Structure formats: C-alpha cells, structure tokens
Amino acid sequence: MADLPALSSMARKALEVLKEGGEFRYALEMSSYTRREQFKARLKTASGRTFRGIGISTMYELKGHGLIVPANSTSVSTYYRLNPSLHSNHASEINNCESQG
To answer: How many structural domains does the chain have?
Structure first.
C-alpha cells in the first residue's frame, strides 16, 4: 500500500466501478434547462449505466495519480479507463485500501 496514493472515498468507489469494466466519459452535452453545451464527466458502469454522484473532481483526482488513461477520443468526447499497467500491480492494494477506509 506504500506506493498507492491516498484517495478520497469517492475515488475508491470509482476505482471499484472501473475495475469491473466501467469508464469515465468526458463529453460535450447540452443542458436541457439552459440549452447550452458544456463538458460533463460521467462515470459509466460496465453495462453503460451512469453512476450518480461521481464526476469531474474524482476523474481529475484519478487522472492526476495516473490511475486512469484515455482509452478512446473523438472531437467532443474522451473515454478514460483504468490504467492497464497499474491494474494488476495495484488491484490487491486497492482492495486493502477499501477494507481500511
């Protein structure tokens, strides 16, 4: 656990979703209220459902620690997945961190 960064509880939960095949989607969306476009970050489960309550700050926290990497990108969206080089190395450390947190 020494080289696993200290993560917020939301980041640990996001890692759990990402470990199960989920992904972050950072994309341009239109607000139904204002009809203006803005970028939003959404955590998607492996089945494609939006995981509510986890957004841009958690995505930036994981990205800053190098735990997620861009997997696919278009002109208006970027998808981030768990960093494959860290996935196997930190899997047990993430589980230990979750059980302590």
So the answer is: 1
Instruction: Output b/e per residue, 43-66; b: 16+ Cβ within 10 A.
Output: bbeeeeeebeebbeebbebbbeee
Evaluate whether residue 3 is within a structural domain. no
Per-residue pLDDT of the chain (101 residues; tens, 9 = 90+): 335 678 999 999 999 999 999 999 999 999 889 999 999 999 999 999 999 999 999 999 999 999 999 999 999 999 999 999 875 554 445 445 544 44
pTM of the predicted protein model? 0.76
